[in-house]
């Protein structure tokens, strides 16, 4: 049964030392190289990278057919796997009458690796479409591509891969530049039925994305633990602390205008609903990232990789046809 998935647009910013780089061309060039007597693009073992140094690995797992690599589009599947063969599960039916459900360790077998999450992407020159999962976000793709290119000698240690988002004003022309922005931190809630007077972050199911809470932001701004404790004590049961962070740049007494491109890059991993722009007018609550929801075929509970890649390419073509991006397709662009 098909699932709905959100396809986001990102753009590789080839600035500074990376000026002139074609991301798709460089990726294909690296994958065609040989190491340990194997072509990198034909051996997934050579594409596994421990990004965090914790024994888990991010892998460019499935790639589009090498016969299509000279065409305009390259597609891939990124997986994040962790060591360990045990997972925790409840084997009973939730319809059973019982005083508690038994949580058990299930042994997946020696050598098994647990998949934390999957991301699908397609790249045309420096235009990228992607489908994130809860555990594998666009920032993981950025870090992985950077690590892969560093291993191949195509990227210096200090160079970064930035896949900027594209923020749009919903329903009207947006500001081309702004004087300041507001950023909403995640609320910190007081539990209604927990022992002790402490605040806790909302669980993953209750928030749109991971992010810092108001208390985290205050701590980063230099608030001491005693001051935070006094603030916590004022929150009633079931209440919460909310806050807006206002950001602007000043030259002496004057605010400097900030180009919209700064938002696309610096806040590419922030939910647009949490942003407000102020300049010659105001944008708030109506901002959207360039994205589209499409139905993707499934294999069990997972997205079908081939269909996911095709749908991402469709999205890039639709945005290009609508003039939202300057992505161009020549020849066959649907890899099998």
From TrEMBL:
This is Uncharacterized protein. It comes from Paracoccus lichenicola.
């Amino acid at each position: 049964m098909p699932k709905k998935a959100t396809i986001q647009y990102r753009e590789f910013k080839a600035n500074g030392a990376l000026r002139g780089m074609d991301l798709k061309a460089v990726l294909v060039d690296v994958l065609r190289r040989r190491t340990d007597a194997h072509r990198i693009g034909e051996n997934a073992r050579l594409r596994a990278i421990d990004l965090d140094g914790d024994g888990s690995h991010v892998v460019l797992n499935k790639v589009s057919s090498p016969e299509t690599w000279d065409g305009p589009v390259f597609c891939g599947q990124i997986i994040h796997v962790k060591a360990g063969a045990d997972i925790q599960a409840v084997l009973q039916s939730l319809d059973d009458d019982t005083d508690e459900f038994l949580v058990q360790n299930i042994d997946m077998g020696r050598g098994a690796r647990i998949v934390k999450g999957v991301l699908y992407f397609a790249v045309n020159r420096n235009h990228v479409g992607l489908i994130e999962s809860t555990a594998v976000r666009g920032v993981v793709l950025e870090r992985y591509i950077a690590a892969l290119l560093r291993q191949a000698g195509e990227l210096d240690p200090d160079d970064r891969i930035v896949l900027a988002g594209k923020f749009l004003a919903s329903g009207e022309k947006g500001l081309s530049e702004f004087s300041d922005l507001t950023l909403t931190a995640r609320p910190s809630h007081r539990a209604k039925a927990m022992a002790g007077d402490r605040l806790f972050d909302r669980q993953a199911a209750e928030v749109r994305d991971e992010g810092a809470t108001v208390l985290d932001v205050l701590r980063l701004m230099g608030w001491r633990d005693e001051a935070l404790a006094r603030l916590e004590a004022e929150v009633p049961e079931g209440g919460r602390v909310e806050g807006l962070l206002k950001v602007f740049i000043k030259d002496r007494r004057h605010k400097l205008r900030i180009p919209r491109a700064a938002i696309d890059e610096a806040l590419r991993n922030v939910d647009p609903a949490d942003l407000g722009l102020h300049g010659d007018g105001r944008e708030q609550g109506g901002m959207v990232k360039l994205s589209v929801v499409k139905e993707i075929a499934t294999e069990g509970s997972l997205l079908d990789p081939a269909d996911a890649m095709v749908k991402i390419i469709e999205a890039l073509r639709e945005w290009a046809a609508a003039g939202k991006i300057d992505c161009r397709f020549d020849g066959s662009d649907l890899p099998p």
